[in-house]
Amino acid sequence: MTFLAQEPTLADFGRDPWWLILIKVVFAFAFGLVATLLGVWFERRVVGRMAVRPGPNQLGPFGLLQTLADGVKMAFKEDILPRSADKVVYFFAPVISVVCAVTALSVMPFGPMVSIFGHQTPLQVTDVSVAVLLVLACSSMAVYGVVLAGWASGSTYPLLGGLRSSAQLISYEIALGLSVVAVFMLSGTMSTSGIVAAQGERPQVEFFGLDVSAPGWYAILLFPSFVIFFIAIVGETNRAPFDLPEAESELVAGFMTEYSSLKFALIMLSEYVAMVTMSAFTVTLFLGGWRAPWPLSIWDGANSGWWPMLWFFGKVLALVFVFVWLRGTLPRLRYDQFMRLGWKVLLPLNLLWILVLAGWLKTQGWERADRLIAYGAVAGVVLIVTLIWPSRKPAAKPTLAEEVSNRPYGSFPLPPLDLQVPPSPRTQRIVAEREPANLTTGTDSREV
């Protein structure tokens, strides 16, 4: 095969023979399926490592066959159908989530133009001028599977989990969309292959009086958008600490409570495929797509041939690790805290950043990317400080005397904090009547 370093464009799509298109479609589907099998194993191993335990290590080398064994076990479990469930919707709800998650992989660029059996073709199933909007539409449609699964189960807990998921989508879809707007403004296109090509440009940055070539990744140029986008996709995929639609503490298993056997496996499949898809989407928008990171980019052949597919998978794996890392370290948020973060923190900051970015591009242009990087770094620091800064100072704890004086008249008395409850009047009377006997026998009155 001949390695080419050619950038794919929209004109390069739609010319492949049917068998080559079929190979690409099967590869995208297999990538989502294999990523799910390895993702479950990877998560259990990483979380086990964080908890100082081995994780799955019995079936196969390093426990790699444990996920496959779990899938076979789910297939042979009893498929229970609730009596009050809507049978048609109950069956198709998990399918909707899986189809939407896998469909979004069709516009992800895995690499540049390569030669496959003598045909020059991009390592991407297809691309359109509004490919990013297609991914956002698939992400929005996936929540229908969750909502319908909760409604069709005919139970209270799944219904509450489905309602939570719809509110969660609305709250974080806006912040996610505004983050993508910043990418549109700099790249000038909504095509995924075009966005990756735009990040290949290396603007000149003045650094201590020297003109150096800065990386064109939007994670650096648009750092606030990158941080907000990643927080939003964690909420979109219902991953910890934002896994409120399936909170075990109050909703048992959430919207999937009444599911079993293969339907439950489909729900798990959709969750992990969505996590991998959103990681690939983040890599495409902000981390240069299939382009090699520095210092690998110094090598002339790093961005040609089949090597870019390796860099793409490596970046996706790094983001999946961050998803697992969050699950293993952060506790679940309360629902009011989760809503407050989306509406009162991420949305205003994103609007302010878009306004500043639009004004900068209008007055300074893309040529002064050095100041854009500096302002983006400052804005990113302000964003992180805002996220971790406490919302209010804890109130000073009142003393016992102040607490007693603030109680309303006639309220029930507060027991002593040392748990030395004074004896009741009846006990005091009995002690007083036995006092002479205690003096003669030498018994302590406190023993009564």
TrEMBL record:
<keyword id="KW-1278">Translocase</keyword>
<keyword id="KW-0812">Transmembrane</keyword>
<feature type="transmembrane region" description="Helical">
    <location>
        <begin position="306"/>
        <end position="326"/>
    </location>
</feature>
<keyword id="KW-1133">Transmembrane helix</keyword>
<comment type="similarity">
    <text>Belongs to the complex I subunit 1 family.</text>
</comment>
<dbReference type="Pfam" id="PF00146">
    <property type="entry name" value="NADHdh"/>
</dbReference>
<dbReference type="GO" id="GO:0005886">
    <property type="term" value="C:plasma membrane"/>
</dbReference>
<feature type="transmembrane region" description="Helical">
    <location>
        <begin position="338"/>
        <end position="360"/>
    </location>
</feature>
<keyword id="KW-1003">Cell membrane</keyword>
<dbReference type="GO" id="GO:0016655">
    <property type="term" value="F:oxidoreductase activity, acting on NAD(P)H, quinone or similar compound as acceptor"/>
</dbReference>
<feature type="transmembrane region" description="Helical">
    <location>
        <begin position="264"/>
        <end position="286"/>
    </location>
</feature>
<keyword id="KW-0520">NAD</keyword>
<dbReference type="GO" id="GO:0003954">
    <property type="term" value="F:NADH dehydrogenase activity"/>
</dbReference>
<dbReference type="InterPro" id="IPR018086">
    <property type="entry name" value="NADH_UbQ_OxRdtase_su1_CS"/>
</dbReference>
<dbReference type="GO" id="GO:0048038">
    <property type="term" value="F:quinone binding"/>
</dbReference>
<comment type="function">
    <text>NDH-1 shuttles electrons from NADH, via FMN and iron-sulfur (Fe-S) centers, to quinones in the respiratory chain. The immediate electron acceptor for the enzyme in this species is believed to be ubiquinone. Couples the redox reaction to proton translocation (for every two electrons transferred, four hydrogen ions are translocated across the cytoplasmic membrane), and thus conserves the redox energy in a proton gradient. This subunit may bind ubiquinone.</text>
</comment>
<feature type="transmembrane region" description="Helical">
    <location>
        <begin position="18"/>
        <end position="42"/>
    </location>
</feature>
<keyword id="KW-0874">Quinone</keyword>
<dbReference type="GO" id="GO:0009060">
    <property type="term" value="P:aerobic respiration"/>
</dbReference>
<feature type="transmembrane region" description="Helical">
    <location>
        <begin position="216"/>
        <end position="235"/>
    </location>
</feature>
<keyword id="KW-0830">Ubiquinone</keyword>
<keyword id="KW-0472">Membrane</keyword>
<comment type="subunit">
    <text>NDH-1 is composed of 14 different subunits. Subunits NuoA, H, J, K, L, M, N constitute the membrane sector of the complex.</text>
</comment>
<feature type="transmembrane region" description="Helical">
    <location>
        <begin position="372"/>
        <end position="389"/>
    </location>
</feature>
<protein>
    <recommendedName>
        <fullName>NADH-quinone oxidoreductase subunit H</fullName>
        <ecNumber>7.1.1.-</ecNumber>
    </recommendedName>
</protein>
<dbReference type="InterPro" id="IPR001694">
    <property type="entry name" value="NADH_UbQ_OxRdtase_su1/FPO"/>
</dbReference>
<feature type="compositionally biased region" description="Polar residues">
    <location>
        <begin position="438"/>
        <end position="448"/>
    </location>
</feature>
<feature type="transmembrane region" description="Helical">
    <location>
        <begin position="130"/>
        <end position="153"/>
    </location>
</feature>
<feature type="region of interest" description="Disordered">
    <location>
        <begin position="405"/>
        <end position="448"/>
    </location>
</feature>
<feature type="transmembrane region" description="Helical">
    <location>
        <begin position="88"/>
        <end position="110"/>
    </location>
</feature>
<feature type="transmembrane region" description="Helical">
    <location>
        <begin position="174"/>
        <end position="196"/>
    </location>
</feature>
